Amino acid sequence: MTTITTRTVEYPADGLTMIGHLALPAGVDRRPAVLLGPEGMGLSDVERRRADALAELGYVALAFDLHGGRYLGDPEEMLARCLPLLADPERMRGIGHAALDVLRTEPRTDPDRIAAVGYGTGGAVGLELGRGGVSLRAIGTVNALTTGRPGESARIRCPVWAGVGSEDPIMPPAQRNAFTAEMQAAGVDWRLAVYGGALHAFHHPPVGHPVVPGVGYHPRHAQRAWRDVVDLLAECLPVTEDLGPDPGKHAGPGH
Question: Is pTM, for the whole model, over 0.85?
Answer without folding.
Answer: yes
